[in-house]
Amino acid sequence: MRYKMIVLDVDGTLINDEKIITPKTKDALIAVQRQGVIVVLASGRPAPGLKRESDALELEKYHGLLLSYNGGKVIDVTTKKVIYQKSIPRETATRLLKHLETFPVTPIVDDGTYIYTTDEDGYQIRYESQNNNLKIKIVNNLADDINFCPIKILIAAPNEVLLSASKKIMAPFENELSFTLSAPFYLEATMKGVSKASSLRIICNILNIKPEEVMAFGDAQNDILMIEFAGLGVAMGNACEELKAIADEVTLSNNEDGIAHTLKKYYEI
């Protein structure tokens, strides 16, 4: 089987624990792109937060794709064209943000340029700003002052808080929004049905690539549907047990060049 597309989760998968793409992994991914393989970065991050990795892998040169916001927005890096986007209606976003005011969590909302918050020292606000190349804009009240349709609303809190509150947070919106735990301290809300897998299906239809021609790598719960969708779903050695259980293969960890290790089994690089 010749895999025509390689889909990569970023945090915990493409980058190691020092937040870098190792030379061995970088060289392997550039080598397969030279053979005509399309590389897709699939992340919960906003698109600006993927620029460093996109540049390192030369995606602009090879028509790579950025699948950001857990599938809420897909961009062709070369043409800058938005291939797909699914936003949360403002009314729904307002209701969720009002609802979140009753929980000890930090909502993080961005428009691709700014993170909007009532407190720049809020939980994970500065980290998200720095990690995703987003500026911080202070508002009086998120529910009242967000005047756009966000693609994703990120809900941040320590793991023990999220575990105890997540069911109550999600319950009123289960018919409208999809929720995914992307990290122990992050619960992400997107439109119902939006996922890395749903966006991949749309991309593959556009590019005339079959699911069985897709190889995907991931490590977390928000990668499960993507790993199931791909013809070859690969869990990193550091992946959560749920992902390892459904993956076709388990490779080495993100600190051991797991992606490069697997690519060398399937490509002459």
TrEMBL record:
SUPFAM superfamilies: HAD-like (SSF56784). CDD domains: HAD_Pase. It comes from the Bacteria. One of its GO terms (molecular function) is magnesium ion binding. It holds the Pfam family Hydrolase_3. One of its GO terms (cellular component) is cytosol. NCBIfam families: Cof-subfamily (TIGR00099), HAD-SF-IIB (TIGR01484). This is Cof-like hydrolase. It comes from Thermoanaerobacter italicus (strain DSM 9252 / Ab9).
